[in-house]
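EI: anyone free to look at a 314-residue chain?
SC: sure, send it
EI:
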Amino acid sequence: MGSLFDFMLPELKSPMTGATTDALMGFIHIVSFIILAGVTIAMIYFAIKYRRRSEDDETPLITHNNKLEITWSVIPLLLVFVVFGWGYKGWLNLKTVPDNAYEIHVSAYKWGWTFKYENGAQVGNEVHVPAGRPIKLVMQSQDVLHSFFVPDYRIKQDVLPNRYTYVWFQADETGESQVFCTEYCGTSHSNMLAKVIVHTENDFEAWLEEQGTGGGGTPEERGEQLVGLQGCASCHSMDGSDGIGPTWQGLWGKERNFESAASVSADENYIRESILNPSAKIVEGYQNQMVSYEGRLSDDDISDIIAYIKTLEE
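SC: here you go
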């Protein structure tokens, strides 16, 4: 059954979480095709058999048929029970995380993903995992409703603010898979993409060791890393090109003009205010779309971002 429907679905890379989904989808399609064929044949048969042959033909009185009515009621009901039981079994599998699962924490925000590992390492828009081992993703949103969807693994889970949700998968082979957000979350929703990158166990351990705790480097380097982790580049360009928000190239020390406030120079206080209270001053020509990062970035984090912005000269 799987090979018959392979052309309809992407390659299944997590049989432990996706095999039930594919089998159930195949079953539904086959049953639907049989019903469609049966109804179509019956329509053609009755259209020919009961066609009008002369002006004197009259439609005979047709009464109900108990056996036929019970049959076409009971068979669909049984099919519904089969689909429900099959789907419920798959749902239980998705909610029963293996005890040896490797846990990764996921933060969703407009418009990107941050993945945090047990050793403190953080990566933006890429989740690196070992092959052949169950992976549990513990997820929460920093702002609005998002949804974590990986077609190759047949997993999809809403990511909510102020609570945790989780999902698990196991990739058996190395490679890459695409992550989508499937809940509309704003103007750059379609750009909220990420990658699942699967390594061998040894390569994953080496990659994880290279990441360290993410706290080293100069302030400028830490600031650049934070910009990637927090998804700032999804709205603000670093090269002067237009975006949802003003470019950061040449921002430092530049005079800023606002819709309903006096102009100011882009110094530490202005940048800090823009991060923690972005609606206080809206640059001319742009809309008030940025969410506050209060509680998400420490004072040291903001200082590092400012240090990075200072390097973005025109």
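EI: The longest helix spans residues 15-49.
SC: 👍
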